């Protein structure tokens, strides 16, 4: 069989560049009723996810078909009771999306928003939780992929835990790439998806949650297909069975991706690789005259926003095409009030790829001529 290789590396925050072996794992069909799939693949993944997420007991993993947003919507729509109220700590497009989900579902929502270029402020969260006793749940994005901002997870979780509220974390673009212990942090619901730092292909997301919080979701869901409790119960009681058609090939590829994460040395080793990628990227880009949107101390090792060059001849589209011809796909900016582009360094990307990228960037800077 001929192996197809990629024409270019995706320096994007997901879907991202996967290994050939992850892609090859999809070349087999699976029966969703058969134990080879349910026990051998799905249950294996659920157990492994819990182990990766926390050293503490009392957690369980639920898989939900769809893009990552479906898993966020399943949590928001299932975890918050009729008389509940959600606080969203919002500093980017993905925080904004959580507010939008709550609006669609007619869930009362309030937000703390200091703009896209500042990290979450734990003191402001504490103050608001003290003032507004009607807030029952708090949601925050760990790594805001909009800018690359890493929010202060530990400090915010501590405030939320002390106030006795339920903590929901969108760790979509950080889980698997940044070490964290869900249980030690006191997180009730942690959400991520297949096509980010675990380096699988798109098609489903997952939730790692405290079991007693999952129990409380019973009969609260505002959607059938996104009923977190029902999906969890089906997986628990039928050895990993999904209620509806499961993205079998994607799930099998994800199992392979988890094995490759382990072979790399686990989350700590992957974090080190991403951190080295990001450090080389920023140092190299700065040497070429680019500036980052955020100061380095707030950057995640996941993705970096660079300010667009101010030269009149600069055009993102042309720069993008030049880099693509040289084997690299970058990402447009997503910040509302600054002209940026973004470069991700998660996925099957190594420091030597970043070095090659920097040479390609140097060769693509036509606007300077
Ligand atoms: C990727 C991502 C999501 C989910 O996006 P989808 O397009 O639905 O997969 C949510 N939150 C963050 C922070 C993300 O990076």
Automatic annotation (TrEMBL):
Keyword list, A-Z: Aminotransferase, Pyridoxal phosphate, Pyruvate, Transferase
Domain Aminotransferase class V, first and last residues per copy: 65-303
Record flagged with keyword Transferase: yes
Reaction(s) the record says it catalyses: (2-aminoethyl)phosphonate + pyruvate = phosphonoacetaldehyde + L-alanine
Binding positions (substrate): 342
InterPro entries found in the cross-reference section: Aminotrans_V_dom, NH2EtPonate_pyrv_transaminase, PyrdxlP-dep_Trfase, PyrdxlP-dep_Trfase_major, PyrdxlP-dep_Trfase_small, SP_NH2Trfase/AEP_transaminase
SUPFAM superfamilies per the UniProt record, alphabetical: PLP-dependent transferases (SSF53383)
Superkingdom field: Bacteria
Required cofactor(s): pyridoxal 5'-phosphate
Example GO BP: organic phosphonate catabolic process
EC class: transferase
N6-(pyridoxal phosphate)lysine: residues bearing it: 196
Molecular functions (GO terms): 2-aminoethylphosphonate-pyruvate transaminase activity
Enzyme Commission (EC) number: 2.6.1.37
Summary of subunit composition and partner proteins: Homodimer.
NCBIfam families named among the record's database cross-references: PhnW-AepZ, PRK13479.1, transamin_PhnW
Described purpose of this protein according to its UniProt entry: Involved in phosphonate degradation.
Family the entry assigns: Belongs to the class-V pyridoxal-phosphate-dependent aminotransferase family. PhnW subfamily.
UniProt name for this protein: 2-aminoethylphosphonate--pyruvate transaminase
Gene: phnW
């Amino acid at each position: 069989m001929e192996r197809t290789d990629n024409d270019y590396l995706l320096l994007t925050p997901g879907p991202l560049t996967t290994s050939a072996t992850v892609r090859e794992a999809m070349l087999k069909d699976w029966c969703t009723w058969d134990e080879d799939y349910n026990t051998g693949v799905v249950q294996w993944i659920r157990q492994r996810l819990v182990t990766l997420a926390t050293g503490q007991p009392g957690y369980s993993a639920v898989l939900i078909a769809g893009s990552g947003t479906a898993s966020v919507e399943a949590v928001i729509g299932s975890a918050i009771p009729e008389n509940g109220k959600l606080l969203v700590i919002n500093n980017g497009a993905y925080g904004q999306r959580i507010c939008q989900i709550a609006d669609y579902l007619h869930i009362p929502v309030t937000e703390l928003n200091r703009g896209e270029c500042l990290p979450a402020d734990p003191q402001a969260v504490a103050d608001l939780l003290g003032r507004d006793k009607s807030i029952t749940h708090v949601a925050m994005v760990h790594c805001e992929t909009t800018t690359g901002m890493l929010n202060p997870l530990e400090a915010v979780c501590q405030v939320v835990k002390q106030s006795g509220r339920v903590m929901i974390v969108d760790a979509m673009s950080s889980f698997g790439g940044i070490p964290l212990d869900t249980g030690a942090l006191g997180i009730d619901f942690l959400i991520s998806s297949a096509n980010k730092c675990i380096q699988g292909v798109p098609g489903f997301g997952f939730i790692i949650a405290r079991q007693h919080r999952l129990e409380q979701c019973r009969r609260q869901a505002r959607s059938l297909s996104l009923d977190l409790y029902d999906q969890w119960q089906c997986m628990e009681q039928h050895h990993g069975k999904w209620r509806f058609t499961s993205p079998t090939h994607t799930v099998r590829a994800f199992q392979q991706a988890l094995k490759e994460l382990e072979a790399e040395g686990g989350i700590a080793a992957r974090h080190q690789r991403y951190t080295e990628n990001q450090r080389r990227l920023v140092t190299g880009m700065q040497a070429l005259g680019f500036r980052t949107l955020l100061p380095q101390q707030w950057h995640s090792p996941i993705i970096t926003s660079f300010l667009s060059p101010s030269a009149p001849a600069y055009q993102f589209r042309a720069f993008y095409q030049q880099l693509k011809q040289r084997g690299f796909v970058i990402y447009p900016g997503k910040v509302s009030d600054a002209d940026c582009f973004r470069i991700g360094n998660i996925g099957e990307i190594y420091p030597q790829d970043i070095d090659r990228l920097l040479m390609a960037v140097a060769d693509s800077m036509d606007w300077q001529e």
